[in-house]
Amino acid sequence: MSATNAAGGAPDPLEGLRQRVRELIVRSGRSQREFADLIGLEPSKLSKSLKGTRRLSAEELIRVAEVAGVTVNWLLHGSDDAATVVAVPPKVRAPAPPAERGAERAAGAERRRQIIEAAHRLIAVHGYHSVRTVDIARACGTSSATIHYHFPALRDLLDEALRSAAKQAFDRQVAVLHTVPCARTRLHRLIELQLPYPGLLRREWSIWLQVWTESALNPQLRELHAAHYQRWHDTIARTLREGIEAGQFREFDAEAMATRLTALIDGLGIQVMTGRPGRTVEAMRDALREFVATAIEGGSQP
Predict the structure, then answer these.
(1) What is the end-to-end Cα distance of the chain in Å, rounded?
(2) Which of 78, 111, 174, 227 has the most CB atoms around it within 10 Å of its CB?
(3) What distance in Å separates the CA atoms of residue 237 and residue 256, rounded to the nearest whole number?
């Protein structure tokens, strides 16, 4: 019999999520308490979330997905390709990890995650071409030999860190937006998620600036960039189409408008990141809000 909610009788749509988290805990080879510690959540809160008396927050969903090596879309819907408010992820091949068994596989996956996270942070701060294997090893508290075991070529590790950055960005979109049915509200949230505030979002912008630069020179990264940027474009276009259908936006070509809006976000973000005088995050937000109000909403919604 399927799980029901507290109101009585209706299937609980979040039971699938809870079951998948339980599956990930078992797969990790850790106890529930150990898994909670790993994702930075109080064990009692994880326990309540798995019992259905508490909901995992967007940030907690992101952290579970990050630690377990899955997507937020899979956590919520059981499939990476499930239809949601964010476009379906592209199929981009990543290097296969070394062959391992049982507990070794779990430990190896955790070590790979730590290495990729360290590389991600270092690239964001110091730059793609300035990060050395020894720097990553030092940040992980391990040896260069361990880094080479998991990633024989430094280029493979750096590219994987860029893939990880793309995954995290879309995981955040799915986690934050999956409970937002209103297209107008969702568009404004999407824009907020693109503002390079100090901290995580600024590091993500730093990564993407470097992806753009490397993509101009590296065909392999060009494929990665094109696939993920298309997903971003499709997410915006889908939101615009839904807003038009709901009467929240004026009539226009959603594909063409998505191109205009994403180009404006990119251009303003570059100006903020490169420190152009007067180009602040707040000014970027105001410019984007004005564009949405005049070009997209067009007075159709108070």
Answers:
(1) 46
(2) 174
(3) 8
Q: How far apart are CA 247 and CA 296, in angstroms?
A: 11
Amino acid 153 reads A
| Nearest residue to 238 via CA among 150, 174, 301 | 174
Give 4's strand partners.
11
Bridge partners, 11 (sequence order): 4
Neighbouring residues of 164: CB distance < 8 A, sequence distance ≥ 6: 116, 117, 120
Q: Give the amino acid at 20.
A: R
Grouping H, G, I as helix, E, B as strand and the rest as coil, residue 87 is coil
- The helix/strand/coil state of 96 is coil
Evaluate whether 232 touches 296 at the Cβ level (below 8 Å): no
**Long-range CB contacts (within 8 A, 24+) of 230-233:** 230/87, 230/90, 231/86, 231/87, 231/88, 231/89, 231/90, 231/170, 232/87, 232/262, 233/258, 233/259, 233/262
pLDDT tens digits for range 112-169? 888 998 998 999 999 888 999 999 999 999 999 999 999 998 888 878 887 888 888 8
SS3 152: coil
The reported pTM is 0.80
Q: Whole-angstrom Cα distance, residue 152 to residue 160?
A: 12
Q: In whole angstroms, what is the distance from residue 79 CA to residue 103 CA? A: 25
Over the Cα atoms of the chain, what is R_g? 21
Per the model's pLDDT, the better-predicted residue between 91 and 155 turns out to be 155
Place of tokens 């392999």: 220
Q: Quick check: 116 and 151 in contact, CB under 8 A?
A: no
Q: Which amino acid is at 111?
A: R
Taking alpha carbons only, the member of 285, 64, 262 closest to residue 175 is 64
| Cα–Cα separations (whole angstroms), residue 73 to 50, 79, 80, 191, 214 | 18, 6, 5, 20, 28
Q: What is the largest CA-CA distance in the chain?
A: 62
